[in-house]
What does this fold into?
Amino acid sequence: MTSVSKRFNSSDLNWFKPKPKAGVLAVDNVSITVYRGEIFGVLGPNGSGKSTFIRLLSTLLVPDSGHVTVFGHDVEREERVVQKMINRVSVEAAFFKKLSPLENLMYGARLYGIGGAEAHRKIIAILKRLDLREDAINRPMEEMSRGMQQKVAIARALLTAPVLLLLDEPTTGLDPRSKREVQALVRELRDTHDATIVLTTHDMSEADALCDRIAIVNDGKIVALDTPAGLKRLVSRNGREPTLEDVFMQLTGKQLKNEEDG
It folds into this structure.
């Protein structure tokens, strides 16, 4: 991502693509490089541009200025190539609510050209790895909790073993045990499938535990970018070990709330 800016005006609003409120400069002349094989975190207050960053990488949005490339492929000129390399999990994941997790994932597998028997085997293995109960696999999605639905969204993304996995608040709504399971899967995907992962989260401990590097964004700009340990060195100790929350509060002066941002 090189010198990228994205502004939303009233004419940009569209009912089928959630976007920030009108008049917002969501990304302001941002240049950033995510290295192959790393887990890269993005932290920021609500409205800071975190989700816009993910949507630009995923081809859902195009920049007003600058260039976005994924492993050398331009997201505008080579949209189809990029889409085959990525998958995205967002806090507003959509499903056919009357269908079961198995039926939803079988449909998704067909879209990616994965055959019936192979798809069924992969889906069952991933759902079990996520500790989704057997009685839930064939239950309608509308009967499942928010946390269980998010597990299915993650399973759908893992099905294609993407080269670039975009996780936009992936553990929102999950209980502590489910969070740990998802976090373990994220590490496993990076370590065993050569995946690069970009993660936005409101969970400071999650960012600290998972991310190789973290960008803190505020008002569409990157205000700090370093390893978790490097970021902590930016604030004074005051007799104790600083946390990422200390860093965040000092650099943005804002609280991190567990809500979707722009």
About this structure: The longest strand covers residues 2-8.
